Task: structure prediction
Amino acid sequence: MKYDIKELNIEEIYKERFRPAKITLYKISWDGVTYDFLINYVPGSEVMAAFGTGTMSNRALKLPFFARLTWYPSIPVTAVWYADPTYYEGNLKLYWYYGTNKKWYLENIAFILSVIAKNMGVNITESLFFGSSGGGYSSLVLATMLHGKAYVINPQIFLFNYNEIHYKRFVEDRCPEGEVPAEERTNLIKLCERERYIPRIYCLQNICDIRDIDKQITPFLSAIAHNGYDCGEAVTMDFYYNERGHNGMPDKAETLAYINKGLADKRRGKNLLLEVKSDAPLAFFERMNGLNLGDAGAHTAFANKTKPLEVIKGVRIEWQDDGSLLCTAETYTQSEEHLFAFYLINSKNRIYEKMAYSPEKSCRFEGMPEDTFTVNCFVRTGTVTEVIKCAVPKKETEV
Result:
C-alpha cells in the first residue's frame, strides 16, 4: 500500500498539526528510536481510533508493520496506526512494544499520541484503542494510561502467561542477564494499580480459545474480584464461537461493527482508591502533569520525571453530616512552602469545581449533585508540582 512519508525529530512534533490531506506515515525520531504512526485524518473528527499490532507472523515483510491497515476507508473517524519499534531491533514475531527495561516504547508512544491528539484537536479520553491478541494488549495499556476506551479481541493481559517458549525468548532478547521485565509492563492489573485506574474495557473473547480463557481472562477477572476493585460498568466481557481458537477472529464486517460500537460507547473507566507507596513508580498522568505539550522540551521533562512522589502521600476524603465533602491532603513532610489545590472532577472527566492554590491542606466542596467524582490534589513546592488522584467514595445512606 502506498502512502506519503514525513520524517520528524521529536522536537518538531509540537508544531506539526498531524492533519494530512491523505494517508501519511510519520516517522518520529526520539533518542535513537524511530516511532512510526500512520494517520488517516478525517476533518471534523472529534475522536480518533488507534490501532495496535500483534504478532508479525512473516518477519520478511517490510517494516513498519501495521495490522488491518487496508480497512482505513471504512473507519468513520481519524484513524492512527502505531507500529512497534522493537521490530527494528530483534527477530522475534511479537514484542508487545516493550523496548528495553530502561525505555518502555509503549509509554513513549502514549506520550506522542497525546501530542498528536492535541494538535489534531481530538479528545483522547473519548477515543478508542483497538487491537487483537498482542495488539489487544497494547490497546489495554494505552487506554489505561490515556484514560480512553479499549475494545479488544482475544487479548494478552498477562504476558508471562503467553506461550512459554516465546516469552522466555522475549525475556532473553529484551532484558540484560540477571534482569526481568518490569512488572507493570507485563501485567495489566499491576499497571492499573500504578495508574490507579481501570479503563473502559470491552473484551470480545473466543470461547473456543481455552488457553486464553484459562491463562488470561480468568486470572484477570479473579484479580479484580479478589482485590475488591469496583469496576462498575467499566469492564464488559463478551464471547463468540470459532473452532480455530486464538486465531479464529471475527470477519471484517463483524469487526468493523465492533469498532463502530466502541466509537459510540459513552461508558468510562473507574478510578481505583489505592494508597500510593512512596517508592511506587510514577503513574503516566503524574508524569504528564504540568507539562506544556506545546513546549518543544516537553518530551525531555516527561522522560526525566521518574522520581516517586516526595511530598504528597494521599488524600483523606470524608463526607460530612451536612452533605459536604471534606478533603485533606496527607504529606510525608511539613513545610510552609507547600501550596495545595483541589480539583473536583465529574464522571464526564470535566472540572466541576476547584479550589485554588493556598497553604491550606484541607478544603470543603458543598452542594454536590448525584454523580461519580474524583478529587485531584496538587501540591506545589517552588517550581515542582505533584498530583495525586483519588476516587470519592459513595455516601453511606441510613437504613
The longest strand covers residues 33-40. The mean pLDDT is 91. Residues 115 and 362 are 34 Å apart (CA to CA).
